[in-house]
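Input record, target 12 of the design panel.
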C-alpha cells in the first residue's frame, strides 16, 4: 500500500515539473493531506510522503494541524504576509501552526491560530528552531519531523494524556522498539544481585512497567565518578531514554549511596509518606547487604502504591493514626499542668494586701499634706505590621523529576 502511495506521489511530482509551481497552499491542502510544501525540492518523494502521513496522523489523533513550508522567496511577499496567507488559504482545521522558511533571506517565521499563542510563544519557537538545525540528516526532513514531534508533544501534555509516543508513525515505532532492545530495566553494573535472582527481578519490573505504563528501574554502579548521586541518577535515567513517567532505585556500591529517583507523574504524585512507605523496609535490607530482597520489596511496594493512583492522577490521603490526636491532647494538658504548677509554687510567699505599709520602716515617712495631680500624658503609637504573604512554594510542583537520596 505504501509503495502505491509513493508511486502516485511520484507521478504527481513529475507532472508538477511541467506545470507552474505555486508555493502558497490552496484550500484543498488539508483535504489532500498536504502539510509539507517544499518549493526548494530538497526532500525526496518518500520523505515528503512520510512527513505528510506523519502530520496527518498527528492531526487525526491530537486535533492539531502542524504545517511546514520552505520557499525560495515567499513569492516576493514579506515573510510575515506569506505565512499569514498560507495559514488562511491552506484549508487546515483550527488549531493550526505554520512554520515557514525562506531560503533567499535565510529567515524563518511561525504563524498560528490565536488559540495556540499562549502555548507556543516566541521564546519557544526560537528555541525549537535552534534545536531543529542541530538535528542530523542528509536533508532537512529529520529536523522537520523533530519540529512536528516537539509541537505535538507539548500540545498533548496540555490537552490530552501526555502519551503522544503511542501515536508515532510505524517507522518511528520500529526504531523505538529496536533502540529499546539495548535498554533494560535492570542494570546491575556493580554485581550486587545474585545471578539466579536477576531474571526474576527483571521480569517483575517489566510486568509492573507494562501494566501501569511507567518504567520501574533497578540500577547499581561501582562508583559515582565524582558526581553527586542526584546528578548521576538524573543523567543515568535520561541518557537511557526511559519513560518520562517512571521510578528508579539506584545504588552506588563504593559510596553506599542510594537515590530513589522519580520522574513525570510519579514525581508529582509521590509524597514523603509514600517514599517512607516504600523505602523503610528496603533500606533495612540494604544495610544488611541483602540486595535481592531489598529490590524485591522495592518492586512489590512500588506496585502497591502505583496501583492506587486514581484517574485524576492523585493518590489517596495517607491514613492518620488516631493515637496521634490523643497523644497530642494529653501531651498538651501535661505540659500546661507542669508550667502552671511551677509558676504557682514560686508565688506561695505572696499574699494580698490593700496597702504597702508593711514595706515601710515605722517613723521613716511623715507627710503633712498629700495630694495627687495629673501632669501630662506621653503616648507613642506604632503601626502594627501586616503579616507577610507566604512566598514559599512546594518543591514537588516545580520541575519534572526528583526524589530522595541518602546512605544505606
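The sequence produced for target 12 reads:
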Amino acid at each position: 500500500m505504501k509503495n502505491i502511495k509513493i508511486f502516485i506521489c511520484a507521478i504527481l511530482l513529475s507532472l508538477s515539473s511541467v506545470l507552474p509551481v505555486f508555493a502558497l497552499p490552496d484550500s484543498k491542502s488539508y483535504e489532500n493531506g498536504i502539510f509539507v510544501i517544499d518549493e526548494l525540492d530538497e526532500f525526496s518523494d518518500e520523505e515528503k510522503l512520510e512527513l505528510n502521513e506523519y502530520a496527518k496522523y498527528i492531526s487525526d489523533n491530537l486535533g492539531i494541524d502542524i504545517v511546514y513550508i520552505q520557499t525560495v522567496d515567499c513569492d516576493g511577499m514579506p515573510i510575515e504576509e506569506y505565512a499569514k496567507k498560507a495559514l488562511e488559504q491552506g484549508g487546515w482545521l483550527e488549531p493550526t501552526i505554520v512554520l515557514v522558511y525562506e531560503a533567499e533571506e535565510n529567515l524563518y517565521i511561525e504563524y498560528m491560530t490565536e488559540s495556540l499563542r499562549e502555548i507556543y510563544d516566541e521564546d519557544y519557537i526560537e528555541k525549537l528552531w535552534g534545536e531543529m538545525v542541530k538535528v542530523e540528516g542528509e536533508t532537512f526532513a529529520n529536523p522537520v519531523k523533530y519540529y512536528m514531534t516537539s509541537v505535538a508533544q507539548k500540545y498533548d501534555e496540555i490537552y490530552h494524556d501526555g502519551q503522544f509516543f503511542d501515536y508515532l508513525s510505524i517507522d518511528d515505532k520500529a526504531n523505538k522498539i529496536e533502540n529499546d532492545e539495548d535498554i533494560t530495566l535492570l542494570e546491575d553494573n556493580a554485581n550486587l544481585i545474585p545471578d539466579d535472582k536477576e531474571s526474576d527481578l527483571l521480569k517483575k519490573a517489566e510486568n509492573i512497567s507494562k501494566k501501569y505504563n511507567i518504567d520501574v528501574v533497578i540500577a547499581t554502579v561501582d562508583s559515582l565518578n565524582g558526581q553527586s548521586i542526584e546528578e548521576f541518577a538524573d543523567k543515568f535515567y535520561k541518557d537511557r531514554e526511559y519513560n518520562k513517567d517512571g521510578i528508579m532505585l539506584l545504588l552506588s556500591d563504593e559510596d553506599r549511596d542510594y537515590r530513589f529517583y522519580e520522574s513525570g507523574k510519579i514525581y508529582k504524585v509521590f509524597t514523603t509518606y509514600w517514599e517512607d512507605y516504600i523505602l523503610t523496609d528496603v533500606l533495612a535490607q540494604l544495610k544488611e547487604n541483602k540486595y535481592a530482597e531489598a529490590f524485591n520489596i522495592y518492586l512489590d511496594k512500588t506496585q502497591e502504591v502505583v496501583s492506587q493512583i486514581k484517574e485524576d492522577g492523585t493518590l489517596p490521603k495517607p491514613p492518620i493514626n488516631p493515637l496521634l490526636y490523643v497523644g497530642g491532647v494529653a501531651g498538651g494538658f501535661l505540659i500546661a499542668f507542669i508550667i502552671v504548677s511551677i509558676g504557682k509554687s514560686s508565688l506561695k510567699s505572696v499574699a494580698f494586701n490593700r496597702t504597702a505599709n508593711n514595706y515601710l520602716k515605722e517613723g521613716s515617712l511623715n507627710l503633712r499634706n498629700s495630694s495627687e495631680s495629673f501632669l501630662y500624658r506621653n503616648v507613642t503609637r506604632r503601626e502594627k505590621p501586616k503579616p507577610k504573604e507566604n512566598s514559599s512554594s512546594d518543591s514537588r510542583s516545580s520541575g519534572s523529576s526528583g526524589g530522595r537520596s541518602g546512605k544505606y
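The longest strand covers residues 65-71.
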